[in-house]
Design a protein that fits this description.
585 residues, alpha/beta, 8-stranded parallel sheet, 48% helix, globular
Length: 585
């Protein structure tokens, strides 16, 4: 039994499919003599495609972002042209009979070892550039997701160090029952994708790649954060029972998708969905969401081969709106930085604390043309629909000055479209409250916005001064901490007094224990992973507003996180015992 971080509830049992590093199981077989020429040709073709992509990417980034940001792709091209680089790959294919993927993997390990021996930080950082180049060539040789899993029996449990955004999104192409990662947190790419699809998942399981091989039987308990490899018959039988209960509960909850979202005493709620891709928007509709409360546009950038231009973004946003419930969508502008990076926006610039540094709206201000392109694309897409509402939301706003600057940029984007003869419609503008400074000054912020969404994931780590991805301090990142609850109540109260709509779109919104607390604080709009909509609707139907308010009065008297957690575990068992199966520890 291995312990990790519970990131997506439920129990799954299946066959391990191990994704090693940036390759999907690079082939370890030796080539036959007759295969060498074809394998060399495959490598050369992949290398030529990578070179063409890099040249195009350099030109596009220089035009849309800037010369300095494009320079990294000139470096990547020089690595690709390096004779020592290519000669080693060719030699290993010809002399050692390695496949191209295996040769690239060997080369990456060689560079890693070489760079690790130097004390020069600049040189040590260059391994990232080599890895990017090798990953680009490799992606032209192998699929991002497993293509040979048909030989494996039963549902698949994906095991990886961490999933890249492109890998996480592409997992929708195969049937995945569970996800386990060595790295990551409750807000990693793997966690976000797993929750959006209702897939049990555990992150932060140290050493799991050394202990598991493809084909092993794996148990994933996403409630308690447990992973068991090749369990004995007694444990397997116990987990099979839990797995059946989990699926039975999901089937039961799925039947309420057409019922109204309201409390036991008839108070209407807005249960909305957080989405990353079009498939999530369709899932939100199927699960009975009333709207999309958060569309994370960064996944478009993270999975795009280069920089998405205005027309590409326009068509993407239009498709998202068309497939969202009632055409109601809140679109968040680019939230890159921290744990989400793209090479053309400076992930090679080392920062001591990237989560509190050059990210989100701060990065957008640094690249106004890139930012204006996105705003124009959103405004164009919003004007295409006669029904529904498209709202524009900005992440990580810290103060009133930033907000005034943002509203000015929206107005200029509207004027630019009108000058091109393109129709625009009024779009409500709001912010994510995730920086403590914005929460403390919420009264001033509310005078300049049409709505507010509370991003509890970042708000918690900033309030607690603890990086949620740092295993030494992430125990402090607790949404049930008394300080967090006090700030949440302050913001919700201020919004309700002003009559401005307020939503919680962090992971707190979909967790049963915190859902009850937020309801008791006066929140009526919740945005969560689509898979959580049915359970939230069920929980709401089993509690009155008065009960939730009484619970909050008690909760606010506690002085420790453990007191709050123990109390809420008891309350959840009392109000909705069946839903404890969907609550993470």
């Amino acid at each position: 039994m291995r312990k990790g971080i519970a990131v997506s509830p439920g129990v799954a049992i299946g066959t391990a499919y191990v994704i090693h590093d940036i390759f999907v199981n690079p082939d370890t077989k030796r080539l036959e003599d007759s295969e060498v020429t074809a394998e060399l040709a495959s490598y050369e073709t992949a290398r030529d495609k990578a070179a063409i992509e890099l040249r195009a990417l350099e030109r596009k980034v220089e035009a849309q972002v800037g010369h300095d940001e494009a320079a990294i792709f000139a470096v990547h091209q020089s690595i690709l042209r390096d004779s020592a680089f290519t000669n080693k790959i060719r030699a290993w294919i010809v002399d050692d009979r390695l496949t191209a993927a295996a040769a690239l993997n060997r080369l990456l390990e060689e560079y890693r070892l070489m760079f690790s021996r130097t004390d020069d930080q600049y040189l040590r950082d260059r391994v990232v550039d080599v890895q990017d180049v090798i990953a680009r060539i490799s992606s032209r040789l192998v699929d991002i997701v497993p293509s040979d899993h048909s030989s494996l029996e039963g549902p698949l449990i994906v095991i990886a160090d961490e999933l890249l955004p492109s890998q996480a999104v592409a997992l929708g192409e195969i049937s995945v029952a569970g996800i386990v990662t060595q790295a990551g947190s409750q807000t990693s790419h793997a966690a976000i994708i797993a929750r959006s699809r209702g897939i049990p998942a555990v992150s932060g399981v140290k050493g799991i790649l050394r202990q598991v091989k493809t084909g092993d039987l794996i148990v994933v308990d996403g409630r308690a954060g447990h992973v068991e490899v090749n369990p004995n018959s007694e444990n397997l039988a116990a987990f099979r029972k839990l797995e059946r209960e989990f699926f039975d509960l999901k089937d039961q909850l799925a039947e309420n998708q057409h019922l109204p979202a309201q409390t036991a005493d008839g108070t209407e709620l807005k249960l909305q969905a957080n989405i990353n891709v079009v498939a999530d928007a369709k899932s939100a509709t199927a699960m009975g969401a009333s709207a999309v409360g958060l569309y994370r546009t960064e996944y478009l950038y993270l999975t795009h081969p280069d920089v998405p231009d205005e027309d590409e973004q326009y068509h993407n946003y239009k498709e998202i709106i068309a497939n969202s419930p009632n055409h109601n969508v809140t679109i968040r502008t680019l939230d890159i930085g921290g744990d989400k990076t793209v090479p053309y926006l400076g992930h090679h610039h080392q920062e001591a604390n990237p989560f509190m540094g050059w990210r989100s709206i701060r990065l957008s201000f640094q690249h106004p043309e890139l930012f204006n392109t996105q705003i124009r694309a959103i405004l164009r897409a919003a004007s295409e629909f006669e029904t529904g509402t498209v709202r524009l939301m900005f992440p990580m706003v810290t103060n009133v000055e930033e907000l005034r600057r943002l509203r000015g940029m929206v107005k200029r984007a509207q004027r630019a479209l009108i000058s091109r003869g393109i129709r625009t419609v009024p779009v409500p503008v709001g912010i994510m409250v995730e920086v403590p400074a914005a929460a403390i000054c919420i009264e001033h912020i509310l005078k300049l916005v049409d709505f507010v969404s509370i991003g509890s994931n970042d708000l918690v780590q900033y309030l607690m001064a603890a990086d949620r991805d740092n295993p030494k301090v992430n125990h402090l990142c607790q949404p049930l901490a008394p300080a967090v609850l006090s700030v949440l109540k302050m913001v919700i109260d201020a919004c309700n007094r002003s009559g401005k709509p307020v939503t919680v779109c962090g992971e707190m919104a979909g967790q049963p224990k915190t859902f009850i607390i937020l309801l008791g604080m006066g929140l009526r709009r919740f945005s969560m992973s689509p898979a959580f909509i049915p359970s939230a609707k069920q929980l709401a139907s089993q509690i009155t507003v008065a009960e939730a308010e009484n619970i909050v009065r008690s909760v606010l008297t506690f002085t420790t996180t453990s007191q709050v957690r123990k109390y809420m575990v008891l309350q959840l068992k009392r109000l909705a015992p069946s839903l404890t199966l969907l609550d993470t520890a």
